[in-house]
User: What shape does this take?
Amino acid sequence: MTAVAGTGGLPAAAAKRIDGWALVWAGVFVFCLVCFLLRSQFPWLVAYPKEWVPPIDTVLNDGMRAVVDWFKFIFRALSWLLEFPMLWLRGLLHWLPWPAVVLSATAMAHAAGGRRLAWFTALSLLYMVVTGYWDESMVTLALVGIAVPLSAVAGLFLGLWGAHSARVRRVLEPVLDVMQTVPTFSYLTPLILFLGYGPVVGLVASVIFAVPPMVRNVMISVANVAPNITEAGQMAGCSNRQLTWWVQVPAAMPGIMLGLNQCIMAALSMVIIAATIGGFADIGWEVISTLRKAEFGQSLLAGIVIALLAMMLDRIGHGFSRRAGETKLPVEGPIWRRHPYITFALAALVASLLLQLVIPAFNDWPEGWVIRPAKPLNEMVDWIVVNLGGALDAIKNAALFFYMLPLRIGLVNSVRANYWGFDMSPTVAAVFVAILAAIGALAWRQWGWRGLVPVVIMGGLYYYGTSGTPWPAFMAVVIALSVGAGGWRLGVFAFFSMGFMLLGGAWLPAMWSIYLMIGSVALSFMIGTALGIWAASNDRVSAVLRPINDTLQTMPQFVYLIPIIMLFKIGDFSALLAIMSYAIVPAVRYTEHGLRSVPGHVIEAAHMIGCTERQILWQVRLPIALPQIMLGLNQTIMLGITMLVIAALVGTRDLGQMVFGSMTSANFGMGVIAGGSIALMAMLSDRVFQALSAKQARRLGVTL
Assistant: This one.
């Protein structure tokens, strides 16, 4: 096969394809340039006319009202059926003496993860007792305690069905994609119409939201059971049902338990988000209500409860999932030897019930013993605002005026003398173009046209802003990128996705969401990649970052808002920080994993030819780890999109705010359009970056 000069030794056919794609991108840029030149003459190129938007939301609202009128009585009956066990469990948890719950949970934690986890669980629950949040925490646990079994059972049966039927799996996978990418608030809007306000809405939303991770883990785990295990069951004469329940499910139990753990975390996250509609006095409502009243000390104390609950449940679930595949020898003897943890929990319950008759504090923690450090926390916040407010405002304003505002409305509209020290002029524009050309030349020299394309795209977005970019130009770039990454089918999906946003009247909010995503994901990815590189080269740094990453990944989403609002109040900058905090972990972990996975013999070969450590990093390790790093970028984007709706609580004006507004006004049509737009953005981004990662992996001959 003949190689072509100037193409890095690529075969001639590949070089022709590269040249062809270079011409395609040249054509796309010419089309975009024409759109920008005509944007003043034809304003509809930037602002899609409202009269061109069909009344999709009205049709959806009318259809939903008809459905509600027909089936409302069924859902209200379902609400009554679900409310009964939830109220019963909540009453039981409130009736049980708190020492019984603490000791039983501690025993469970010891069984799952040993002494350290037991101490962590005990101290976490005692924190809820002494800070006065025990009753609210038990309400949240009651909701999770009903939601998780329902989700787990539904997920188990759907996952088994999908694992045994390729046709069912083809149907389930896109449905699961939609369920996992539709914003969490979008689940609440139709449920409010059917079920009304109250705790059952949060329960049902949690069940729906927690099903997909269980289904996926069951499907993957059962499908990956070793063929020899299945064959052994068949040779033993098992029927299909026996083969499933006696052979495949036990063999897949570690993966199923991991799915159950993710199911628990998803249910907890959704229960707390559902607290925004009110109706039940759980710990999530405590956080929301105190945030709205600017009682930051109280909000932080309640937020710590949520974080502790999440970490406690996550670590106990992980512990049981790790032990699910262990072979245990049968223990002989009396029942307390065969089941020591259950015996301990029952003994703790009996002892607590008896002791509460003598010591009332074992039943209700005395109000006088409650420790509430909210006042000093509020005073600390006031001190920070008074003494460091100027510095915090300077940081916020610098980020807003020099970074975020240009991404939103463009340099052409944001450069002003009162912030920049000069106004936008032809000279300033020429300097910007010269800087962009220099960066583009360096990118061209290093990576060819593949490096030049993103420089031109980001330069255009920074100059005109996402809200000032003509929609045909934006669509052309995204479609070209999709086709280049994943073929014409992905390009068609991109076309219909953006067409949905355009015809649904959600284009401008979508551009505001994209601006916020670009700004936050770019910083998250750069900082996270730098930390991942550092951790990959330093075991001590890796050991420090690991528990921090674990904590960040287990905390429910809107807990991130509490310290940020305390320091920076509401606004786009607070939303940027919240998204960055939530989305940075995959960039760190995938970068470190990718660099540590580079084969040792490759690094030894680089040393033998005289490469320095810097050359090995930039010319050997990073290129080989690039597919993993790109997967980390993909996950960073996905988590950032997930956080968009939560960020609406701090005052953004994007798709997240549309979703939140649809929930508060019970506008089903607007919720479908806004939530569907976010889901389509997430699915399109996921497919593009998955395809790019796979291409890079094939190019390098590595396995993801």
